[in-house]
Write a structure and sequence with these properties.
heterodimer, A: Rossmann fold, 2 domains, 5-stranded parallel β-sheet, 11 helices, B: alpha/beta, Urease, subunit C, domain 1, TIM Barrel, 9-stranded mixed β-sheet, 4-stranded parallel β-sheet, globular
Chain lengths: 314, 431
């Protein structure tokens, strides 16, 4: 099967075959990352602009790193250094980036749907690096990639996503990918942060932590996003931790081989005990590492590469 | 101005329960029962074979942006869009810049309407100073200047105490209050209906409960004070139920629905197109069906457009940042015919009624009928003609329409105001 997409906007619109193609391509790139010379020439001569209009550490660095490993030239812009702070519209900023002959644009934006909007304006590929509370497709891809490395096929696997689901783009992208891959997904958290409407995406919604964690093979924690919660969706961080924080006792309810995931940044002591975040079941840093290979795969494919041609030279 | 002899039309005049092939006569700007043989000979004849002739349409909810936002629309351009849509009377909202909370601004609007409009443009005034919801505007002075209602438009008065006083005070002049029903505390940052679709799209939701609470509040205050409150652009099924029950008790409330809430649901937002962004937002299929049922049984009194022009550069933004509102005047009739007559089997005269006599009755305007002696405000339309709506070349100054580029059925051919043809065959007839 060849790859046809130029943009990566959502996981909702990807087929299972496409997700598998990205994962296979990422696996091939991951092998190159353990070599002494980590660079491959796949995107030599191409320029990628990372337009990060919302703060990001991990995602931005991983996209940077991925582009450099592919030998692309990379320019990164944030909200403070771009003209959006002077009132320039997103359309104008993006058209200027295209006029500067960038070959691809990676966008992180606080407004849901803005990558789709750019994809309609621009002729160059647009990669969504997180849009508001909508999607974060590369995160969903790297999370499911990491799960597959540990569990093999995800069909029938019990995955719990725990925390602030309402405001989480990570949750939405993971839900779309996991449902397509056949996992049994349960969303858990306070009822104000896990509205029942999520069931329409093909997942279970629960507010019973014990029942949900029992025998789960993956638990993915989501950060309580203080900055998005102007209005109080729950009484306090302390109450959140006491009701839904993952601690040793609660982790003991999981399947013995279960992995603990978190897209970062972690609030230690809030959604997860510090010890668990660093413990042997935690794959949090593996997720970060896999983030490079997965983003290499996405950049490579959307730039016109084909999955079967990933034959990196030493 | 010549007398008119409109011949062979399907004449629909709901006020007179008339629906028959026949003629309409106009003399000196008024409808007359007949013309003398001599007058007939001299009259300008309009062959309306195959067309419906009905009272000029009445829209009690438009935004013409003048003064202050004339880059979006003016009273001149808005009135031309209205004429092209078959409207002969419209009621303007007061959220201009400055807002219409004083006699001077009302005078400005009336002067502009007198000078620039091709149809009848009627002003409303604010309920509170600056539309800020803190102190009452000079409602008596506004009334004296001729406002047909008071409203704080999109800035729904949040204080129940202030709304109660506004009701009591306006009742003294028997002046209707129009309310955009929205509890602001429930809709902070909201950009679309709250539900399964907003959850999927990651957009902040506007729960219908925020409308229902204020609809209920207004029912209570109307009943308590005896004031007439008109509930604007109802979007929620639950609100329709509140209004239905209140009307059975005889509470003095009226309500409207817009063509867009009748035609679309929140599923239309899947592509994040700001031309589907408005306030109140598009809701679910169950809500849409309830609005249609509400029009059918009289719970909702009329159709109005909430014609809300914004320039391309204002609308062409990330969905979260685009302003609310869409155009409506040039498409309202065709969309209403499509949704109500073709899809929901409403009788054509009833839909005409919803857009003429009933709309006028809500604001107690002397419009919406073809009875002898009435102003000769008419709309002639072909209910079957298919046409492609191009918002870019339309008569509004803006083009923010979700129907842009679509083929619509039902086209206005001629619009007549006080016996003068103001729109004909796709063109405005300038004075």
């Amino acid at each position: 099967m060849s790859w046809h997409r130029r943009h990566l906007l959502t996981l909702e619109e990807l087929s299972l075959v496409e997700i598998d193609q990205i994962h296979a391509t990422a696996a091939a790139f991951k092998r190159t990352l353990s070599r002494s010379v980590k660079k491959v020439p796949a995107l030599r001569g191409k320029t990628i602009v990372n337009l990060f209009l919302e703060p990001s550490t991990r995602t931005r660095m991983a996209f940077d790193m991925a582009a450099k490993r592919l030998s692309a030239d990379v320019i990164s812009l944030d909200a403070a250094s771009s003209s959006t702070s002077k009132g320039e519209t997103l359309r104008d900023t993006a058209e200027n980036i295209q006029a500067l002959q960038a070959d691809m644009i990676v966008i992180r934006h606080a407004a849901a749907g803005s990558p789709l909007y750019l994809s309609r304006i621009l002729d160059i590929p647009v990669i969504n690096a997180g849009d508001g509370a909508h999607e974060h497709p590369t995160q969903g891809l790297l999370d499911t990639f990491t799960m597959k490395e540990h569990l093999g096929s995800l069909r029938g696997r019990k995955v719990v996503i725990l925390g602030d689901i309402l405001f989480s783009r990570v949750a939405r992208s993971n839900i779309h990918a996991l449902v397509k891959m056949g996992a049994a997904v349960t969303l858990v958290g306070p009822s104000t942060l896990v509205p029942h409407w999520f069931t329409e995406l093909g997942v279970q919604v629960s507010h019973d932590l014990r029942g949900a964690l029992a025998d789960a093979e993956v638990v993915m924690l989501l950060r309580i996003q203080h900055e998005r919660q102007a209005t109080g969706h729950f009484p306090s961080l302390g109450e959140y931790t006491s009701m839904f924080g993952l601690n040793k006792t609660r982790a003991s309810w999981l399947d013995p081989r279960a992995i603990i995931m978190h897209p970062g940044p972690i609030n230690r002591g809030v959604e997860i005990d510090s010890d668990l975040a660093d413990g042997e079941r935690s794959v949090i840093l593996e997720q970060v590492t896999n983030g490079i290979a997965v983003r290499m795969a996405v950049l490579y494919l959307c730039a016109g590469g084909q999955p079967e041609n990933v034959m990196p030279t030493e | 101005m010549p007398n008119l002899w409109i011949k062979h039309a399907r004449v629909i005049d709901p006020a007179a329960k008339r629906d028959a092939i026949g003629d309409v006569f106009v003399a000196d700007g008024k409808i007359v029962a007949a013309l003398s043989a001599v007058a007939k000979k001299r009259a300008k004849k309009i062959d309306a074979r195959g067309l419906v002739a009905c009272p000029g349409l009445v829209d009690i909810h438009v935004h013409f942006r003048e003064p202050g936002q004339t880059h979006k629309e003016t009273i001149g351009t808005g009135s031309r869009a209205a004429a092209a849509g078959g409207f002969t009377t419209v009621v303007c909202m007061p959220n201009t810049a400055p807002v219409a909370d004083n006699a001077g601004t009302i005078q400005f609007i009336k002067d502009a309407a007198q000078r620039d409009a091709v149809i009848k443009v009627l002003p409303t005034g604010c309920i509170t100073v600056g539309q800020k919801g803190q102190t009452l505007a000079p409602i008596g002075s506004l009334r004296r200047m001729g406002v047909v209602a008071i409203t704080d438009d999109g800035d729904c008065v949040q204080s129940n105490e202030l709304m109660r006083r506004a009701c009591e005070y306006a009742k003294m002049f028997d002046l209707p209050l129009m309310d955009h029903c929205q509890d602001a505390s429930l809709t902070q940052g909201a950009v679309m209906n709250e539900g399964a679709v907003s959850t999927r799209l990651g957009l902040r939701g506007w729960p219908h409960a925020a409308e229902d609470i204020i609809v209920a509040r207004n029912v209570i205050l109307s009943e308590y004070t005896g004031a007439h409150i008109h509930l604007q652009h109802i979007s929620s099924k639950f609100s329709v139920g509140i209004i239905r029950r209140a009307k059975t008790r005889g509470v003095r409330i009226t309500a409207e629905a817009t063509p867009h809430h009748l035609a679309f649901t929140d599923e239309a937002l899947a592509g994040y197109d700001p031309n589907f962004k408005m306030n109140p937002p598009l809701r679910t299929e169950a809500d849409r069906r309830a609005l249609i049922a509400g029009l059918r049984d009289g719970t909702l009194d009329c159709i109005s457009t909430d014609h809300a022009p914004h320039t391309d550069y204002e609308k062409d933004k990330e969905f979260d940042y685009a302003p609310n509102g869409i155009l409506g005047l040039e498409t309202a009739l065709a969309v209403s015919l499509d949704v109500l007559v073709r899809q929901n089997k409403f009788k054509l005269p009833f839909v005409v009624d919803l857009m003429t006599r009933r709309a006028a009755a809500v604001m107690r305007l002397p419009a919406g009928t073809l009875t002898a002696g009435a102003a000769a405000d008419l709309c002639l339309f072909d209910p079957a003609e298919k046409w492609r709506y191009d918002a870019k070349t339309g008569f509004s100054k803006s083009s923010n329409s979700p129907w842009h580029g679509q083929t619509l059925t039902g086209r206005v051919k001629t619009t007549i105001v006080d016996g003068r043809v103001v729109f004909n065959a796709g063109k405005i007839v300038e004075r």
